[in-house]
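[User]
If only I could read C-alpha cells as easily as an amino acid sequence. I have put the entry right below:
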Amino acid sequence: MTENHIPIPELFVSPEAAASLKDAAGDMPSWDLSPRQICDLELLMNGGFSPLKGFLTEDDYNGVVENMRLADGSLWPMPITLDVSDKFAEGVEPGNDIALRDQEGVILAVMSVTDKYVPNKSREAEKVFGADDLAHPAVNYLHNQAGNVYLGGPVKGLQSPTHYDFRGRRNTPNELRAMFKKLGWRKVVVFQTRNPLHRAHQELTFRAAREVQANLMIHPVVGMTKPGDVDHFTRVRCYEAVLDKYPQATTTLSLLNLAMRMAGPREAVWHGLIRRNHGATHFIVGRDHAGPGKNSAGEDFYGPYDAQELFRTHEDEIGVKMVDFKHMVYVQERAQYEPADEIEEGVTVLNISGTELRRRLREGLDIPEWFSFPEVVQELRRNSPPRAQQGFTVFFTGLSGSGKSTVANALMVKLMEMGGRPVTLLDGDVVRKHLSSELGFSKEHRDINIQRIGYVASEITKNGGIAICAPIAPYTSTRRRVREMIEQYGAFCEVHVSTPLEECERRDRKGLYKLAREGKIKEFTGISDPYEEPKTPELRVDTSDIDVDNAAHQVLLTLENMGLIGLR
C-alpha cells in the first residue's frame, strides 16, 4: 500500500467517550471559539494538522515561532494557538479541562490545559510573517483581534463543526486517502487556490498533472482567506462549472476548511504538510504563494519566489514534491496558453490581471472567452454586478462637533433625491439610543458600538442599499475592522471630517468640550482620549471653510469617481 493510502491518526474519541465528556462538560469552563479557531480545531481533530495533538504548548509555540519546529524537532511552520481573553484566562489554570464550543454553544471538543502563557506578539509577527506591520491581515488580527493569553494542551474531539453547504465536496484527510486507495491513485498533485479558476489555471493544472503523471485534486480554501476575496459560495460554483472541462476520471474537487494566514513562504510549507495529510504526493506552489499584497511602504511583503525556495529546502521533510507554478499567458497567434518563460519574441501575448478583471466586472465590460469560461464569468457577474448597482457604505469619522452628522444628513437627502437605492443614516447619537443604550464610553464600549454600526452597515450594503455612518470612531484598528466587514459585500468610502479641534471646541453646541476640560467627562475624544486620524481616507473635508452643501457635494463626486453613482 502506498503511503498516501494509509489512514492517519485523528483526535476524535469514541461515541461512548464523547457522550460521557458531553455530560461532564456542564461543569467545565466554556470557551466560544472564533471562526478562525473553529477552522483550526476542525483540522486538528480530523488529522489535517497532524502531528499536532492540540493547541500549541509554550515550548512548541516558541520552537515554531523561532525555527519552524515543534519541541520534538518536527517541522511545523505555523503557530496553532488558542488565544483567549484576559478575563477567561483568569478562571483557568493548567490542569483544568475546558469545553470548546461553536458560536451556537454546541460542544465540539474538550481541551486539557497544560500551558497558559502570554506571547510576545511583535516577535511572532516578525518571525512568522516577516514584519510587525499592521498592513498584513494576520498581523492586524494578532494585535487587534486575538486574545492576549494563549492556552495550550491536547484536544479530545467530540464532533466536527457542522457545514450545511457543499457537504458532498467536504472530505476529511482519511476520506480522501480511502478514495485515492479505492481509485488506485498513487500520485496526486494538488492545486491550492482561494480565487476562481480561469483558463490559465486550467492549463497550468493540466500541465502539472501531465508533467508528474499524476491525478489532480483541486483543493480550494473555503475557511478564511484574505479580506476582500470572492466569497467561497461563488468560488465553489465557479469550480464546479470548470470541473466539467477536466477529464472526469483523473480529477477531483475537495474543499478545505482552512483559516489562511497569508504568511507567504511559511504558509507554503504549512500548505504542503496539510496536503500531505490529505493524501497528496505533489503540490503546486505559486509565484508569491499566499502573499498578502503590499506592506505599509507599498512594497510586496515577500519576494515572488521566496515560497518556492523555502518549500524546496524542506521538500523531503514535508514528504510532498513541489511542482513549480508556471506563469501562463495566452499567445494570440497560436490561440493557446503557454508558459511565459518559453515564449519567443515577436508573438502577441495577451493577459488580464486580477485588478483588470475586477475593473471589467465593476464596469460591466466584456471579459473575453480566451481569458475565462463563460460559466465562470456568469457566476462572477451574479456575485459582482456593476458598481453602480451595488450597495455601499459612506463612513464619516471626525471629532465631536466637526460637522459629520450635518454633512451626512445633507448627503442622505442628495442620494434620496437621486433615487435608485434605499438610503439609511446610522448617526452616532441615534445608534447610541437604539442599538447601544447600555454601553458607556470606555475604549472597549466605544469599539463595540462602532462594530455594531459596522455590522448593520454591512447588512445594508450586502442587500444593495446605501449606509451612511457618522460616529466619531477614533481608533484606526476598529475602523479597519468595519472596512473589512463591509468590503466583503460592497464598497467602503471613508470620509475624514478633518475640522481642527479648536474649531470643534468653538462650536461646542452641547457644551461637551467645556465639561471635558473641567474633568467632568472622562475619556473624551480629542481632550483626554486620542483621536487617531485616518492616513488614507477616500476623502478628507474640513468644514471650517466650506459650507455643508459643498462638503456633501465633494462626497458625491468621490462616490462618482469610485463608480458607485452616476451624476451625469
Q: What stands out?
A: The radius of gyration is 26 Å. The first helix runs from residue 15 to 24. The chain has 21 helices and 20 strands. The longest strand covers residues 149-157.
